């Protein structure tokens, strides 16, 4: 049986949100590496201060403040890359579908939404059956995943991903400065890894997540540009990278997000 047959990407909607969070609360202590990916409506604003050292952050803040999260993927693993089964015969990956984004009323980048639609996201279903962001935030805050020094967040080029999660967790727009943004990250996500940053310390690896996974011979499970599949690919790519290039030394690359290096979280 191939690895693809052994994994279940569990779609989370309004009607099974509590049940799935109960499963997550039970496994987070044993599977404290949390790979995360989000899907959102693209980038619609570009600030004018293109020469500023904080340009990337200003663009991130402008877009995250304006736009709404569509989907969040979470893959939990232990330090060796093993995934939980939650009492089933499959390894579990979670994909949370949010209701707030309305394609008929909200602004979005047309090419991004078309790509997500082609990759299987049903925006009308999200509106009807999706998760209320406020209820999700309550459950996330009490889940043991955030505000926990023992949890390691694993991401790929994830400034925007953390931006959307912080917007949910705080119920507010992002801070006005990059330093303020990282102050919040330190509180909610004390240990973070950005695989795109780590790749810079290898001799020959490069490219986006799909390209990197290909170079490391990591197979994708599920559909690209869906958050569950992307989070699983991020998890497996990180574990392969850690094993082959950072044996015992990956911790020194924690706390830095690609594109926001001058504001990293370590002192």
Walk me through what this model shows:
The chain is α/β, with parallel strands linked by helices. 39% of the residues lie in helices and 13% in strands. The chain is built from eleven helices and six strands. It has a six-stranded mixed sheet with strand order 1-4-3-2-5-6. Helix 3 packs across helix 7 (159-170) and helix 10 packs across helix 11 (227-245).
Layout of helices and strands:
Elements: H1 3-6, E1 7-12, H2 17-27, E2 33-39, H3 55-66, E3 71-77, E4 91-97, H4 110-118, H5 123-129, H6 133-141, E5 152-155, H7 159-170, H8 178-188, E6 191-194, H9 195-198, H10 209-215, H11 227-245
Parallel strand pairs: 1-4, 2-5, 5-6
Antiparallel strand pairs: 2-3, 3-4
Short note summarizing the structure:
The chain has helices at about 5, 15-25, 55-65, 110-120, 125-130, 135-140, 160-170, 180-190, 195-200, 210-215, 225-245; strands at about 5-10, 35-40, 70-75, 90-95, 150-155, 190-195. By secondary structure, the chain is of the alpha/beta class.
